[in-house]
Design brief:
The complex is a heterodimer of chains A (268) and B (379). Chain A is an all-alpha fold. Chain A has two domains: 8-48, no CATH class; 60-263, MetI-like (MetI-like fold), CATH 1.10.3720.10. In chain A, 76% of the residues lie in helices and 2% in strands. Chain A contains twelve helices and two strands; from the N terminus they run αββααααααααααα. Chain A has helices at 8-32, 50-56, 61-93, 99-111, 114-128, 134-158, 162-170, 175-204, 207-213, 220-229, 233-257, 260-263; strands spanning 34-36, 46-47. In chain A, strands 1-2 form a two-stranded antiparallel sheet. In chain A, α4 crosses α6 and α6 (134-158) packs across α8. The longest helix of chain A is centred in the first third of the chain and has 33 residues, at 61-93. The mean pLDDT of chain A is 85. With 379 residues, chain B is an alpha+beta fold. In chain B, the strands form four sheets. In chain B, strands 6-7-8-3-9-10 form a six-stranded mixed β-sheet, sandwiched between helices. Chain B has a six-stranded mixed β-sheet with strand order 13-12-11-15-21-14. In chain B, strands 16-20-17-18-19 form a five-stranded antiparallel β-sheet, with no helix packed on it. In chain B, a hairpin with a 2-residue loop joins β18 and β19 (331-337). In chain B, α2 (95-105) packs across α3 and α2 (95-105) packs parallel to α4 (139-152). The longest helix of chain B is centred in the middle third of the chain and has 18 residues, at 169-186. Chain B is elongated, with a radius of gyration of 25 Å. Chain B starts with 5 loop residues before the first strand and ends with a helix. Classes of the chains: A mainly alpha (268), B alpha+beta (379). Chains A and B meet through α7 and α8 of A and β6, α2 and α4 of B.
Amino acid sequence: MTGPLNWLPRTIILVLLALVIFGPLTNLLIWAVAEQWYYPHKLPVTYGFKYWAEVFKPTGNAMLSLWTSLLIAVLTVLACLAVSIPAGYALARRSLPWRALIMLAFLLPQAFPSVPIYINIARIFYGYGLNGTITGVVLVHTTHGLVFSVWIATAAFAAVDRELEEAARSIGASPLRSFFTVTLPLAAPGIMASAIFVFLESLDEFTGTFFVGVPDVTTLPLLLFNASMEGNYQIASITALILLVPSVGFMLFIERFLKADVLGKVGA
Amino acid sequence: MTVAALEIQDAVVSYGDAEPVLKGVSLSVASGEFIALLGASGCGKTTLLRAISGFVRLRAGAIRVSGVDVAGLPPDKRDMAMVFQSYALWPHMTTAQNIGYGLRLRRKSRNDIARRVGELLSMLGLEGLGERKVTQLSGGQRQRVALGRALAVNPRILLLDEPLSNLDARVRGQMRHEIKAIQQNLGITAIHVTHDREEAMVMADRIVILNEGYIVQQGTPEEIYNRPATPFVASFTGAHNVVALHLGIEDGLVRVAAGEHNAEALLRLGSEGAHLAEPKGGPASAHFHTEAARLVIGDDAPPNSLTLRGRITQSSYPGGVYRYAVDVGGRQFMVDDERRFSTGDEVGIWLPAEALHLYPATPEHMARLAGIDENRDRL
């Protein structure tokens, strides 16, 4: 294959791929810096950072919903870790009866269409006064996040060789001591990845927040939704860009810290 | 009588409802003794070690350390330390942190830990590697770190679970002697699990051979090698050449009846004669080590020895001596000799009485020797 045009198919495919990946992003970037852009202009009429100032204005809705989003995400991560660290260890170490069933149970919230589930959750939460509260939203995000959290934590603990714990036990470490000095530090990259994943999922989550949180709790995705419904594409684009930052950071983290032996054990 | 450093009494271990892995093992270990638990895989030697260390519970029996029953205690309360086959070093800690871990658990001061770790590093030939990550060490160095980590806590009993089997042959040979020397210098009681006969012979004061959940023989390396109690032990300790004989017992002597491949022979018994496991005549199987056999030509058999007639089918030179495969009535025997023979030569395998271990033949043993495949018979 040394024909004069053998570079052509590859180049065409690469260009198309680049277009698919970067096209929407470019649109987003242009909208984020467009102050005026209307038909029939192919590009914005005036550029500027007016809307950035509006989004980042301390008293604005955007900053408020950013803080709400972050608070919910952090609480969701803590709630997930509180379950996934003990559950993941138990699932990885002890030969639990019904192990496969328990693993599947965490998958259930993902297995059914989410809208009916969230409508029902909203109805149940209403009875407990949880609708429109941060707690309610955190609980919804946690049920959603647990599947990743538990599955990844189980894989991370399973990747820690049992003999490493036994080595600590044999020279005098209590079970708890060997867990905190040997097992947990070695599983930490995997646990960390699951925490970041849950954080991002929570930051991104829309449907559950919509049914349980509205109108009292407004997160960034809800703000984005409202802004684009009102035709305010600048605010929507800037919000979307803010949401993009942690995702990219996570990709870099995964590539840097998570080892193949952990990833290979997810769901195993 | 002094109290044994470690005493195991009728230990039974089973996993679930399956047949027990240990079926009643009793063993007494003196302080400062180096014991090797030797056996093929699945014989229960690792299970016994894990029962001693506390990772496996006894279903019945007792384990006493200096007279105190520890069978109900968790591993961390037994004052032992284990060295693992995989080394089981903690990759998130440096060499010094690995070795010092047990001392930190015991709330020693930072200076004490640093001093003790320094001592161990120099004793193990690891000077200057204290701050190195354990993942950057060679196999032999990792093994030393694992040993140092176990020794740092001054355990009453050191447990070694096939610690050398992941090392290459050269390092393994060297580590055998190093571990032995350290054990002797410290006077520490050690239990070493291995499937390598030579390793057990070189390192241990006493070898305990296990088979199918029982101790089949225990003794010094010389006793195990020269007086194997059963055909299994004989095979396992390297006397895996087997020949069927017919014996007659006479006063202090054993008369080997003339057979298809051997002339009649009269052998002495005892320290300068054959090893007769049970004073019983009739069909028997004789085991001998390859190293003990020599080749002879013709029938010039000296007294107090047995000669098997055969033909050389293969020869090789592994170094030092020639190694011949000799066919005796369809069975191959490996024999070493300094002299050069050629393939096809009629020779005799000359076995001095001291080389022979004689056991009453069991039916299945005889069937195997006769080359009868039992499974084929059933079909």
